Amino acid sequence: MIVVHHLNNSRSQRVLWLLEELGLPYEIKRYQRDPKTMLAPAALREVHPLGKSPVLSEGDLTLAESGAIIEYLVERHGRGRLIPAAGTRDRLRYTYWLHFAEGSAMPPLVMKLVFDRIEKGPMPFFVRPVARAIAGRVKTNFIEPNIARQLDYMEAELGPWFAGAQFTAADIQMSFPVEAAAARGGLDARRPKLMDFLGRIHAREAYRRALERGGEFSILT
Fold it and tell me: Can you name the residues that pair with 58 across neighbouring β-strands?
Protein backbone atom coordinates (compact mmCIF):
# COMPACT_ATOMS: atom_id res chain seq x y z
CA MET A 1 0.00 0.00 0.00
CA ILE A 2 1.17 3.51 -0.83
CA VAL A 3 1.37 5.76 2.21
CA VAL A 4 1.67 9.54 1.85
CA HIS A 5 3.15 11.28 4.87
CA HIS A 6 1.11 14.43 4.46
CA LEU A 7 1.94 17.75 6.08
CA ASN A 8 -0.87 20.29 6.01
CA ASN A 9 -0.40 23.19 3.58
CA SER A 10 2.60 21.70 1.85
CA ARG A 11 3.96 20.27 -1.36
CA SER A 12 2.55 16.87 -0.45
CA GLN A 13 -0.82 18.06 -1.76
CA ARG A 14 0.60 17.53 -5.27
CA VAL A 15 1.29 13.88 -4.48
CA LEU A 16 -2.30 13.33 -3.38
CA TRP A 17 -3.49 14.96 -6.60
CA LEU A 18 -1.28 12.71 -8.75
CA LEU A 19 -2.51 9.61 -6.94
CA GLU A 20 -6.10 10.70 -7.57
CA GLU A 21 -5.34 11.32 -11.27
CA LEU A 22 -3.86 7.82 -11.53
CA GLY A 23 -6.70 6.26 -9.56
CA LEU A 24 -4.32 4.53 -7.16
CA PRO A 25 -5.31 3.42 -3.66
CA TYR A 26 -3.34 5.09 -0.89
CA GLU A 27 -3.35 5.92 2.77
CA ILE A 28 -2.60 9.28 4.37
CA LYS A 29 -0.59 9.71 7.54
CA ARG A 30 -1.16 13.28 8.69
CA TYR A 31 1.21 15.72 10.32
CA GLN A 32 0.40 19.23 11.51
CA ARG A 33 2.62 22.28 11.42
CA ASP A 34 3.46 24.03 14.66
CA PRO A 35 0.88 26.87 14.82
CA LYS A 36 3.51 29.39 15.95
CA THR A 37 6.57 28.49 13.88
CA MET A 38 4.68 26.81 10.98
CA LEU A 39 7.44 24.18 10.95
CA ALA A 40 6.87 20.45 10.47
CA PRO A 41 6.70 18.32 13.63
CA ALA A 42 9.67 16.29 14.82
CA ALA A 43 7.71 13.10 14.09
CA LEU A 44 8.45 13.52 10.39
CA ARG A 45 12.14 12.96 11.11
CA GLU A 46 11.25 9.45 12.19
CA VAL A 47 10.08 8.84 8.61
CA HIS A 48 12.88 10.68 6.79
CA PRO A 49 16.01 12.29 8.34
CA LEU A 50 15.24 15.74 6.89
CA GLY A 51 11.82 15.82 8.53
CA LYS A 52 10.11 17.43 5.54
CA SER A 53 7.09 16.64 3.41
CA PRO A 54 6.22 15.05 1.07
CA VAL A 55 7.46 11.60 1.91
CA LEU A 56 6.01 8.49 0.29
CA SER A 57 6.29 4.94 1.57
CA GLU A 58 5.55 1.77 -0.36
CA GLY A 59 6.70 -1.57 1.01
CA ASP A 60 10.30 -1.13 2.11
CA LEU A 61 10.73 2.04 0.02
CA THR A 62 10.76 5.50 1.60
CA LEU A 63 11.10 8.35 -0.88
CA ALA A 64 11.27 12.11 -0.36
CA GLU A 65 11.28 15.09 -2.78
CA SER A 66 8.11 15.78 -4.73
CA GLY A 67 9.80 15.55 -8.14
CA ALA A 68 11.32 12.17 -7.37
CA ILE A 69 8.01 10.93 -5.96
CA ILE A 70 6.13 12.05 -9.06
CA GLU A 71 8.64 10.37 -11.35
CA TYR A 72 8.47 7.16 -9.32
CA LEU A 73 4.68 7.00 -9.31
CA VAL A 74 4.33 7.74 -13.02
CA GLU A 75 7.02 5.24 -14.02
CA ARG A 76 5.94 2.46 -11.65
CA HIS A 77 2.19 2.84 -11.61
CA GLY A 78 1.28 5.16 -14.47
CA ARG A 79 1.07 2.59 -17.30
CA GLY A 80 2.01 5.30 -19.77
CA ARG A 81 -0.39 7.89 -18.42
CA LEU A 82 0.49 11.53 -17.64
CA ILE A 83 3.84 11.36 -19.43
CA PRO A 84 4.65 12.04 -23.10
CA ALA A 85 6.15 9.32 -25.27
CA ALA A 86 9.91 8.79 -24.93
CA GLY A 87 12.05 10.52 -27.53
CA THR A 88 9.55 13.26 -28.29
CA ARG A 89 9.95 17.00 -27.85
CA ASP A 90 7.05 16.96 -25.42
CA ARG A 91 8.93 14.41 -23.30
CA LEU A 92 11.90 16.76 -23.12
CA ARG A 93 9.60 19.62 -22.11
CA TYR A 94 8.01 17.34 -19.51
CA THR A 95 11.40 16.62 -17.93
CA TYR A 96 12.38 20.29 -18.08
CA TRP A 97 9.27 21.60 -16.28
CA LEU A 98 9.34 18.76 -13.79
CA HIS A 99 12.73 20.07 -12.63
CA PHE A 100 12.07 23.77 -13.24
CA ALA A 101 9.32 23.84 -10.63
CA GLU A 102 11.62 23.36 -7.63
CA GLY A 103 14.98 24.17 -9.20
CA SER A 104 14.11 27.61 -10.60
CA ALA A 105 10.56 28.68 -9.84
CA MET A 106 10.30 28.07 -6.10
CA PRO A 107 13.55 29.56 -4.70
CA PRO A 108 12.69 33.24 -5.32
CA LEU A 109 9.13 32.65 -4.08
CA VAL A 110 10.49 31.16 -0.86
CA MET A 111 12.91 34.08 -0.54
CA LYS A 112 10.02 36.51 -0.92
CA LEU A 113 8.14 34.72 1.86
CA VAL A 114 11.18 35.00 4.16
CA PHE A 115 11.82 38.67 3.42
CA ASP A 116 8.12 39.52 3.73
CA ARG A 117 8.26 38.08 7.24
CA ILE A 118 11.38 40.08 8.03
CA GLU A 119 9.63 43.26 6.91
CA LYS A 120 6.42 42.60 8.83
CA GLY A 121 7.53 40.47 11.75
CA PRO A 122 8.20 41.60 15.32
CA MET A 123 11.73 42.66 16.23
CA PRO A 124 13.50 45.04 18.63
CA PHE A 125 12.60 48.64 17.78
CA PHE A 126 16.22 49.73 17.37
CA VAL A 127 16.92 47.24 14.55
CA ARG A 128 13.50 47.45 12.89
CA PRO A 129 14.25 50.35 10.48
CA VAL A 130 17.52 48.82 9.28
CA ALA A 131 16.16 45.27 8.91
CA ARG A 132 13.08 46.43 7.05
CA ALA A 133 15.08 48.70 4.78
CA ILE A 134 17.43 45.85 3.87
CA ALA A 135 14.53 43.44 3.29
CA GLY A 136 12.72 45.96 1.11
CA ARG A 137 15.80 46.64 -0.98
CA VAL A 138 16.52 42.93 -1.52
CA LYS A 139 12.93 42.35 -2.59
CA THR A 140 12.80 45.34 -4.92
CA ASN A 141 16.21 44.90 -6.54
CA PHE A 142 16.48 41.12 -6.72
CA ILE A 143 13.59 38.92 -5.65
CA GLU A 144 10.62 40.61 -7.30
CA PRO A 145 12.32 41.23 -10.68
CA ASN A 146 13.41 37.57 -10.70
CA ILE A 147 9.86 36.38 -10.00
CA ALA A 148 8.43 38.68 -12.68
CA ARG A 149 10.95 37.43 -15.25
CA GLN A 150 10.10 33.82 -14.48
CA LEU A 151 6.35 34.47 -14.66
CA ASP A 152 6.79 36.14 -18.05
CA TYR A 153 8.74 33.12 -19.21
CA MET A 154 6.14 30.66 -17.95
CA GLU A 155 3.35 32.70 -19.53
CA ALA A 156 5.12 32.59 -22.90
CA GLU A 157 5.88 28.86 -22.73
CA LEU A 158 2.51 27.59 -21.51
CA GLY A 159 0.29 26.27 -24.22
CA PRO A 160 -2.08 24.86 -23.25
CA TRP A 161 -0.13 22.68 -20.78
CA PHE A 162 3.51 22.90 -19.78
CA ALA A 163 4.67 19.84 -21.73
CA GLY A 164 2.49 20.48 -24.77
CA ALA A 165 -1.07 19.78 -25.79
CA GLN A 166 -1.80 17.14 -23.14
CA PHE A 167 -2.08 17.39 -19.37
CA THR A 168 0.86 15.58 -17.69
CA ALA A 169 2.45 15.10 -14.29
CA ALA A 170 4.65 18.11 -15.10
CA ASP A 171 1.55 20.27 -14.72
CA ILE A 172 0.95 18.77 -11.30
CA GLN A 173 4.52 19.60 -10.33
CA MET A 174 4.26 23.12 -11.73
CA SER A 175 0.98 23.77 -9.92
CA PHE A 176 2.73 24.61 -6.65
CA PRO A 177 4.91 27.50 -7.90
CA VAL A 178 2.02 28.88 -9.95
CA GLU A 179 -0.25 28.70 -6.89
CA ALA A 180 2.48 30.33 -4.79
CA ALA A 181 2.94 33.10 -7.35
CA ALA A 182 -0.79 33.81 -7.31
CA ALA A 183 -0.77 33.88 -3.50
CA ARG A 184 2.25 36.14 -2.97
CA GLY A 185 4.30 36.57 -6.15
CA GLY A 186 2.25 39.06 -8.13
CA LEU A 187 0.55 36.64 -10.51
CA ASP A 188 -2.76 38.13 -11.65
CA ALA A 189 -4.86 38.83 -14.75
CA ARG A 190 -1.90 40.47 -16.49
CA ARG A 191 -0.74 36.94 -17.26
CA PRO A 192 -3.97 35.37 -18.54
CA LYS A 193 -2.52 32.02 -19.64
CA LEU A 194 -1.20 31.24 -16.17
CA MET A 195 -4.44 32.36 -14.57
CA ASP A 196 -6.36 30.17 -16.98
CA PHE A 197 -4.05 27.28 -16.08
CA LEU A 198 -5.00 27.72 -12.43
CA GLY A 199 -8.68 27.74 -13.29
CA ARG A 200 -8.38 24.58 -15.35
CA ILE A 201 -6.46 22.61 -12.72
CA HIS A 202 -8.84 23.73 -9.98
CA ALA A 203 -11.72 22.40 -12.08
CA ARG A 204 -10.25 18.90 -12.40
CA GLU A 205 -12.16 16.32 -10.41
CA ALA A 206 -8.95 14.63 -9.23
CA TYR A 207 -7.67 17.97 -7.90
CA ARG A 208 -10.88 18.43 -5.94
CA ARG A 209 -10.79 14.90 -4.59
CA ALA A 210 -7.22 15.46 -3.42
CA LEU A 211 -8.33 18.57 -1.53
CA GLU A 212 -11.10 16.58 0.10
CA ARG A 213 -8.66 13.88 1.16
CA GLY A 214 -5.84 16.23 2.17
CA GLY A 215 -7.88 18.85 3.96
CA GLU A 216 -7.81 22.63 3.79
CA PHE A 217 -4.91 23.88 1.70
CA SER A 218 -3.06 27.18 1.42
CA ILE A 219 0.41 28.00 0.16
CA LEU A 220 2.88 28.49 3.00
CA THR A 221 6.29 27.46 1.64
Answer: 2, 61
pLDDT at 45 over 60: yes
CB 213 within 8 A of CB 20: yes
Half-sphere exposure of 118 (CA within 13 A, CB side): 18
Beta carbons of 84 and 166 less than 8 angstroms apart: yes
pLDDT of the residue at 101: 98
Rounded CA-CA distance 163/98 in Å is 9
pLDDT score for 35 = 75
The model's pTM: 0.92
Helix/strand/coil for 171: helix
Please report how the helices 169-184 and 144-157 are oriented relative to each other, as an axis angle in degrees rounded to 10: 140
> Which secondary structure element, helix H or strand E, spans residue 3, and what is its range?
strand 2-7
pLDDT of 148: 98
